[in-house]
Amino acid sequence: MEFTQYITPDGLVYNFDNTRDKFLISETGLGMPPIEYQTQRGPFQHGETVLDYRLRPRVIQLVHRRNACSRDEYYNDRSEFINYIRPNRQTVGTFSPGVFRKILPDGSRRDLKVFLEQGPEFAARSPDRWDEWSFHETIRFIAHDPIFYDPTPVSQVVNTYAPFGEWVFNPPFFDTNYYHNGLILPAPMGDIVTLGNSTTVLYTGTWPSYPTITLNGPMEGPIIENYSTGEKIQLNYVIAVGEVVTINLDYSIKSVTSSINGDITEVVADVTEFARFHLAPDPEVSGGNNVILFSATSVIPNLFVEASTDDAEANSTDSTIDLTAIDLNFGNDGAHVLNIGARFTLDVPKNATIISAYLALCSIPALPYTNSCKAKIYCDDADDSATFSTYANFAGRSLTTAFTSWTLPDTNGVVVYHTPSIVTAIQEVVNRAGWAFGNHCSVILRDDSSTAGATRNFKSWDNLYQPPPRLYVNYAPTKSTASMSWYKKYIGI
């Protein structure tokens, strides 16, 4: 069976037919809406040249009968019907259309946004027959947007990237905007990765649909292109880790919003393309197969030591600690065994799956350092690692069961060295019962029987000319994604 309904702006449903006491006698206006052709005529031209067309608002007209069993019930039915369709049935501070809904025999639905234009009048009945317990009325709705739509949205991921393995990493580099200890210095940035993917969106409607696109950071300068129509959207914007940007292309909205910064529509590079972007039906696009291309760049975040006491050199031979030296000496200098530690604010949720993690250390510009220098890399096994203060504070920390062995390379000049993966130690910390997003994590390098005279020197937070230790961590929830949702649109039913 098929049914016809009206859904009020505040969500109530009125059924025009229930085969018992409500009947839909007739309905018109469900086919093609009125068409207005845009034409031009030259000074000597007979007739006109058609340039384009636009659809005009459509009118839906219903003839509705409702039977009652008494005069009291008749007036109650009248009152109820008026209460459903009255134009002021709105929530406070809003004015929005109702929905005319047609439920087809196969169960599919077609919706149309409408306003009441006329009726009911409850005119006097014909004197030729008695019908005082029922009403038989003409109702007219106007749809200023004449396009029907299926109210069940369709969604598809048009791009998804795991944050490790599928990405192409460039070597670390230095920008010129690092502010440290009052000086502008070269600053290490994140690793640049290029994102790119294409997918085919099958659109089965009969009228163009203007989708909603959702972008989950991190990514920079995203471009979404419908290769099949030649339209594209580009945002001059950097989407942060955890930030969600929503591009709503519906004609009544046309906006770009950020979960952090609110309305950012001004970042759209080309407003004309932004206004036109759509999913096209067949035959505009063969078979309705819209090829969607997505591209952007992304930066894998890295974390810096934030204070002088957040990195330390600990002399286990003399039981001393240095918190203010411009470098961090590690290894065995022949007289002392030297360990180092670095503390970071770690914006990683509890129990997140760590995908990649490593420490980056910048060597000092001095004589070459060689000989066999070895380390075991642990993390402080604490819910929120404390900053360094005394040697006892450094040496007395409980360390993770997991560690990574590292044979340090020979160093010569200013070079950034990456440790092997320390995923297992970081994972052990964020899996702790008391771990929380934004807590601190300390990475500890302990000497592992280095050869006498084998040391390596790295820059500390107190060094004015080179960057301090930094930690790269990436975890599963930070993957960049782009998805699209839309409604199937129909020119008529």
Structure report:
With 493 residues, this protein is mainly beta. The chain has three domains: 147 residues, Elongation Factor Tu (Ef-tu), domain 3, CATH 2.40.30; 160 residues, Jelly Rolls, CATH 2.60.120; 163 residues, no CATH class. It has four helices and 36 strands. Strands 24, 25, 26, 27, 29, 30, 32 and 33 form an eight-stranded antiparallel β-sheet that branches. Strands 2-1-7-8-9-6-3 form a seven-stranded antiparallel β-sheet. A hairpin with a 5-residue loop joins strand 1 and strand 2. It is elongated and about 120 Å long.
Briefly characterize the structure.
The chain is mainly β and 493 residues long. It has three domains: 3-149, Beta Barrel (Elongation Factor Tu (Ef-tu), domain 3), CATH 2.40.30.200; 154-301 and 479-490, Jelly Rolls (Sandwich); 306-468, no CATH class.
Coarse morphology: elongated
Q: Could you report the average pLDDT, rounded to the nearest whole number? A: 88
Class inferred from helices and paired strands: mainly beta
**Helix count?**
4
Residue share in helices? under 10%
Spatial separation of the terminal alpha carbons:
16 Å
**Number of beta-strand segments:** 36
Largest sheet features? 8 strands, antiparallel
Contiguous low-pLDDT stretches (5 residues minimum) are 162-193
Q: How does the SSE layout of this entry go?
A:
Blueprint: E1 3-7, E2 13-15, E3 22-28, E4 35-40, E5 49-55, E6 58-67, H1 71-85, E7 98-103, E8 109-118, E9 134-143, E10 148-149, E11 154-160, E12 174-180, E13 183-188, E14 191-202, E15 212-216, E16 219-226, E17 231-234, E18 238-239, E19 244-248, E20 255-258, E21 262-263, H2 271-276, E22 289-300, E23 302-304, E24 311-315, E25 320-322, E26 327-332, E27 337-345, E28 354-362, E29 374-379, H3 391-395, E30 404-407, E31 416-418, H4 423-430, E32 440-447, E33 454-459, E34 470-475, E35 481-486, E36 489-490
Antiparallel strand pairs: 1-2, 1-7, 3-6, 4-5, 6-9, 7-8, 8-9, 10-36, 11-35, 12-13, 14-22, 15-19, 15-35, 16-17, 16-18, 16-22, 19-20, 20-21, 23-34, 24-25, 24-27, 26-27, 26-33, 27-32, 28-31, 28-34, 29-30, 29-32
